[in-house]
Request: fold
Amino acid sequence: MSTVEDSYPLTHIVWVRWIGLREVSEENWRKVYTRAVQVQTALGPGAMEITPELVRRHIGQPLGAYQLSDAAFRKQLSELFGKRLARELKQWEDRQSTDATAIRPAQ
Reply:
């Protein structure tokens, strides 16, 4: 049985550029997997699940990304988390504002 994971190349994941590695190799596939899951978590729900099997099937494939050191990746990841949390907080505040307006009696 074919799944989305089977037919969806790793490079088609829009945010793959944020993992900061140029290709998937036998030597770095664990790092690709770890960074991909971290980025996916930072961006929030809605993204395709990344599995070790998916990454390993792409050994030898270029990712089309620029190379980031571990320190630069951590900095970028922190910024992605910050943007996600700011977006979620804004959405929560908007809902609170809407809820408060809805329960006020008309004057």
